[in-house]
């Protein structure tokens, strides 16, 4: 579709993605100058529909942005009241005391929240300030100016046929141009990926690292519910097969977030992260909590884990990357929302200063300086060695040495310098023949569920007639290379059962992509060992519909 067929609308700042980063940028811009024209575009059917965090929220980002958030009714209703950490074995657990941990690991003063609801509230704040917030509008393309800088996005293209040609109800969408474009698409943003590649923004940085986080909401027996309780575990069932662990957060209304993160640098392609999560719920400590309750929602999303040394350059002409499109999660704290908010605020301040002096379309270097030298950089620098230590030495040594390193970093130095991550998560995958097949127990339908049943609790939906948003560079490669070499791990790493290898009697195996099931976690784009899968955004409004994730 040529740009000329599309209507063009001019803004001061165009923001792709209504997560905590994008919404914070929008709020801050209008706080600074109510006459600025600011638009936020969100691919979910409503703001919050695609938001999946734990979440224990460190309110420092919100405090900085909206200091009177309490008076304004922000949905931070459940302060953390207790914080437990266990090492699990198959049938028992050891509670690890909190005192050896540096203060940064303490959850005192934090809140258990639904980030989907926090984002809904932030969108209301933005709209009250005059921001245009458009859900159901996927930003599908970047628009470049004649010098190769980013000048806008294409959003709202609907009605393509499966082969990519316009269907009977085709809508070409609009070009939204801005003096600056902010990409706040979260982890592995599809437009951010294009910008990082085009401007080589990762040059000289460590590769970005990721985990896959899966989460269920349970309604449990009120007698077992302990509002404000936060529990983290490590150990069983992953053991030495992969890094990761679980979280169990007791929010309001007898609900509990039960989540599980598997680091995506695992080597064994037989590993099945979703089944590890299901198995985890059968641990006696967890089963006792959940028995008699019911799972009411399910979702999954990648989480960025590379931290300080993996943050790419975050500005290029006309464009800035925000929040987890850069990767701002503090891994040992499993927290990125506060940094996402702070990055939105910092980007807004840099754009405001630039627009005030009639700049546009250039690099907002003040934003990058703020991120690296300010609160975000400080937060991430202290914990920068925890993830590489875990990858290199495994869980127990990294707990001890990582704890020591966080302590010394709190005092201003590190004995380890800045450790490297080395390989990408895709490159970490080893050949199937080098590893044992893992035998997973069948889900019992009470505590554990098969993938497709659980996906129905993500309420995900994609218009079937559109082209698949999961694009293969070479459509033969899954069967010709990935299957013999890696047992085609897409069948297992996808938490939504999108990918299947179908082997019918007498015929050659076929690779099938059920894109309708996709929950937009982006794991395939990250973990495919051949890097043959490209996740592009489907039409707006499609995807999961999370209630209060
Ligand atoms: C399982 C899990 C548990 C976590 N637990 C915690 C926790 O307890 N505490 C914490 O602080 N952090 C936690 N995090 C990390 C936290 O979720 C991220 O740091 C945070 O979401 C980053 O915010 P963001 O605004 O950058 O991106 P996101 O929150 O991912 O928001 C991005 C938004 O952009 C939209 N979007 C993406 N692409 C497009 C496009 N092309 N067009 C239009 N819209 C688009 C998405 O639909 C989404 O709404 C967790 C993450 C996971 C996966």
Question: What overall geometry do the principal axes of the alpha carbons give?
Answer: globular
| Residue windows where pLDDT falls under 50 for at least 5 positions | none
Helical residues, percent: 25-40%
Tell how many strands the DSSP assignment holds: 24
Explain this structure.
This protein has helices spanning 20-32, 60-65, 115-128, 190-198, 273-280, 284-290, 337-356, 365-373, 375-381, 386-393, 395-410, 425-428, 451-455, 477-486, 490-493, 523-527; strands spanning 7-16, 38-42, 56-57, 78-79, 82-88, 93-95, 111-112, 132-135, 139-144, 150-155, 158-160, 166-171, 174-183, 210-219, 229-235, 244-250, 255-263, 294-304, 315-316, 319-321, 470-472, 499-502, 510-513, 533-535. The chain has 549 residues and is an alpha+beta fold. Helix 1 (20-32) runs parallel beside helix 3 (115-128), helix 1 (20-32) runs parallel beside helix 7 and helix 10 (386-393) runs antiparallel to helix 11 (395-410). Residues 16-22, 41-44, 50-57, 138-139, 184-186, 189-191, 213, 215, 259, 261, 301, 303, 323-325, 329, 334-338, 340, 537 line the site of flavin-adenine dinucleotide. Flavin-adenine dinucleotide (FAD) is lined by residues 16-22, 41-44, 50-57, 138-139, 184-186, 189-191, 213, 215, 259, 261, 301, 303, 323-325, 329, 334-338, 340, 537.
